[in-house]
Amino acid sequence: MTMEQVYQLTENLKQLLDHYHLQDRVVTIRELKELLDKRGELIDRLELPCSEEDQVLVRKIDAMNQKINPVLESIRTEIIKDMQQLKKTKKTISRYRNPYQGPSQDGMFLDKRE
Fold first, then answer.
1. Fewer CB within 10 Å, N side or C side of the chain?
2. How many CB atoms are closer than 10 A to CB 54?
3. Model's pTM, two decimal places?
4. pLDDT per residue as tens digits for the range 45-56
């Protein structure tokens, strides 16, 4: 029974990722986390050895995971890029608002004559 539930959650996960849009990223990530947590709990409760039917489901789940993992990785990459862009923007805004804070970009001239 639990292998069928894992299969169903994996299928729901795949469908969610198939309809992923950048505008709905926050909602999608929340749903992804929820599905992945539920699936992880079910996988932890699985009993080995599996029946023949369960082995067929495991192969189907593995095939779906091969499609799910690259999409999750691309979402992760998008989030990292957005975080880096946000840090860069914050730094630029900070420099614009307070241009005299920190070392000078121009350099410095020292006159050795006394």
1. C
2. 20
3. 0.72
4. 888 777 888 889
